Amino acid sequence: MQKVAIVTGASRGIGREIAKTLARKGIKVVANYCKSEQESIKLKEELQKENIEIDIKKADVSKRKEIKELVSYTLEKYKKVDILVNNAGISEYKLFTDETDEDWEKIINTNLYSAFAMSQEVIPNMVHNKNGCIINISSAWGVVGGALEVIYSVSKAGMDGLTKALAKELGPSNIRVNSIAPG
User: Fold this and answer.
1) For residue 71, what is the enclosing H or E element?
2) Which of 51, 59, 94, 171 has the fewest C-beta atoms under 10 angstroms from its C-beta?
3) What residues contact residue 60 under an 8 Å CB cut-off, 6+ apart?
4) 26 φψ region: left (φ > 0), alpha (ψ -120 to 50), beta (else)
5) Are 118 and 6 in contact, with CB atoms under 8 Å apart?
6) Contact predicate 135/84, CB 8 Å
7) CA 135, CA 36: separation in Å to the nearest integer?
């Protein structure tokens, strides 16, 4: 039976390459995007030229309701989720003293809350199947911090903490949780 993956923030950058790689390996991929519909359509068309099908699904993963819809869509269509790649992420490049409450909310919700909520939504299916893999795309800034990207650094450090704790909690259910920190 084919594996099924959800990749958040899959319309461009690292997420796009992850979605393409998984699809080329025969995994059914639901590639999530929020604002980059045209890039997502191009991704789908690029893979169709290789006779590879991929689903593209719009959802703002900073919002629980849209996360639920994304996961429900996947479970209704494919009956399971084997792999979750929490890749969606944004940053602001500015002095910490210029950051606003709105910046904090937007970055933390997109980068950290989305990983928390997406994981929470897929875990029951993975536990039921006694199998799964959650991959959180973090950043070197989560380890060492980045000047002019303080909130981003906080969100990625939080993601690393989420990864470590969740790996311990889900390991007995045969669910791997790992973080990758490019940079």
Assistant:
1) helix 64-78
2) 51
3) 34, 66
4) left
5) yes
6) yes
7) 22
Task: Give first-to-last CA distance, the chain, whole Å.
Answer: 35
Q: Over the range 77-91, which residues count as b (16 or more CB within 10 Å of their CB) and which as e?
A: ebebbbbbbbbbbbb
Please determine, for residue 166, whether its predicted confidence score (pLDDT) is greater than 90.
yes
Q: Which two tokens stand for residue 32?
A: 């999530």
Looking at the DSSP assignment, which residues form a beta bridge with residue 137?
180
- Take residue 116 and report the two structure tokens written for it: 């928390």
Catalytic residue flag (residue 93): no
Of 62, 64, 59, 63, the closest CA to residue 6 belongs to 59
The answer to whether the beta carbons of residues 106 and 35 sit under 8 Å apart is: no
Helices 37-48 and 13-24: crossing angle in degrees, nearest 10, is 30
CA-to-CA distance for 124 and 127, rounded, in angstroms? 5
The tens digit of pLDDT for each residue in 72-101 reads: 999 999 999 999 999 999 999 999 999 999
